[in-house]
Write a structure and sequence with these properties.
The protein has about 450 residues and is of the alpha+beta class. The protein is about 45% helix and about 10% strand. The protein is built from 12 helices and 10 strands. The protein starts with about 25 loop residues before the first helix and ends with a helix.
Length: about 450
């Protein structure tokens, strides 16, 4: 019986890959890809570590040392920071900034974006609104400081207010007026009075100097003698004792010397009460009537010679924070408008048209469709502005004058002042930087998460 030949065993067949099953890379291939990625990321990681990570870590460590950096003081700088009045002022002002500036900028940006979208020449208007963004914060601060100067001769805002007040107000003031020597005295607070008591039935004139010709009202005529006074009267004339171009006799009424209308004149009794009052006419004449026979001091109250309305002290401690916030809004409302306009241009307009066809008003279209669809962009803009105002520095440093700087203080300016602006305490300054980082970090995380969610969608 012959033995059959045994066939060699077949090699194992390779199992086919199932659908959807990926081939697992080997560990060597995986590490090779990681190494290549690290090579390309290394420059960015080194730069990020040198410019971000290292300064943060060093600042935190430095905040635990004294001003010289030699002695470890632990939490002492943080205790000093929160027991310092200037720090509380800075934190309070930062809270005001966060509550006012981002909300106002976002609302204005939304209004501009929606309304200008319906205008034919919208790009021109958007360019005007966005133009302040092209100006540096330093230059914008200089502009606003000049605009809000207290003197109407320097600040355009107060110059406008004074001009409006001169049209609608009733100021008859002659600032800087004083009597001609030997013709009266200047008493307390600018009051001008006769040098001695004046008897009833006599005259008391007041030749004044120190008044600009441009300050004389248009209705003023050449000064005239008041005429004789009755037994119960005191009369006289108040005039500008200067002739344009020169000439005339000092202390005497003459041609070219205008009367001063609208000046109040009082007859003051010995006990200090006002016995009678009168007002000068266009020729500067007055008559004090109804006086009991006797002697009186004739006086021109100081209200005749005050400066009148000269505007508002915008750069004072009371208004300085509002002025700085206004300058910020002027700059950053354009940023909010452009960002929201980009979201508006990417929005599906068919939803709005469908709502209008169904009879919805423009207000309902805006509140029910436009605003909700723009909500992601609005949130990003709002959070970005919060981060920006928390670390605001330029405007607060440039706009306030020296006397108002403490009232306008914010955390970033306080940090600079403590560290480099004369304090030379880098330990306390580092603690303030850590505080600012802690305040900004949550909003940065919110923005990053928001960007991540939008990318995933």
């Amino acid at each position: 019986m012959t033995q059959a030949a045994v066939a060699p065993p077949e090699p194992p067949r390779e199992q086919p890959m199932r659908d959807g099953e990926a081939r697992r890379p080997s560990s060597g291939s995986r590490w090779r890809k990681v190494g290549i990625a690290l090579i390309f990321l290394a420059p960015s990681l080194i730069l990020l570590g040198a410019l971000v990570v290292y300064p943060i870590v060093y600042t935190v460590i430095r905040s635990l040392y004294d001003r010289t950096g030699d002695r470890f003081v632990g939490w002492e700088n943080y205790v000093t920071m929160f027991t310092n009045d200037s720090t509380f002022t800075a934190i309070r002002n930062n809270i005001i900034w966060v509550l006012v500036a981002p909300i106002t900028c976002t609302i204005l940006g939304l209004i501009f974006a929606v309304l200008l979208d319906k205008i034919k020449w919208s790009y021109a208007f958007k360019l005007i609104v966005f133009m302040p963004m092209a100006i540096s914060m330093l230059a914008a601060g200089v502009i606003f400081r000049g605009m809000f100067q207290e003197s109407p001769n320097l600040g355009v805002v107060n110059a406008s207010l004074v001009a409006v007040n001169s049209v609608f107000g009733d100021d008859a003031a002659y600032p800087g007026a004083r009597p001609r020597e030997g013709q009266g005295i200047v008493a307390d607070r600018g009051l001008i009075a006769s040098e001695s008591q004046v008897d009833t039935g006599s005259e008391q004139n007041f030749p004044l100097v120190g008044i600009r010709q441009s300050g004389v009202p248009e209705e003023a005529d050449d000064a005239r003698e008041a005429g004789s006074a009755g037994n119960d009267e005191i009369s006289g004339t108040v005039w500008l004792d200067v002739v344009r171009g020169g000439g005339g006799v000092d202390g005497e009424i003459g041609d070219g010397k205008p009367g001063l209308p609208g000046i109040r004149v009082d007859a003051v009794a010995d006990d200090g009460t006002v016995a009678a009052s009168a007002e000068t006419d266009a020729e500067g004449r007055y008559t004090l009537s109804g006086l009991d026979p006797g002697s009186y001091r004739v006086a021109l109250p100081a209200s005749n010679f005050d400066e009148g309305f000269n505007g508002v002290s915008w750069l004072s401690a009371s208004f300085i924070t509002g002025v700085i916030i206004l300058s910020y809004i002027w700059i950053w409302a354009g940023f909010a408008m452009v960002m929201i306009s980009s979201g508006l241009s990417a929005m599906d307009r068919s939803l709005q048209e469908a709502a209008r066809i169904d009879g919805a008003s423009e207000w309902k279209v805006f509140t029910r469709i436009t605003a909700p669809l723009l909500a992601p962009v609005i949130i990003v803009v709002f959070v970005t502005l919060i981060i920006n105002v928390l670390k605001i520095f330029d405007l607060v440093y440039v706009i306030p004058p020296g006397a108002s700087k403490p009232a306008a203080n914010v955390i970033a300016v306080e940090m600079w002042t403590v560290s480099f602006g004369g304090g030379n305490d880098q330990g306390l300054g580092s603690a303030l930087v850590v505080l600012l980082l802690v305040l900004v970090l949550p909003f940065m995380i919110i923005n990053v998460r928001r960007f991540k969610q939008e990318r995933e969608q």
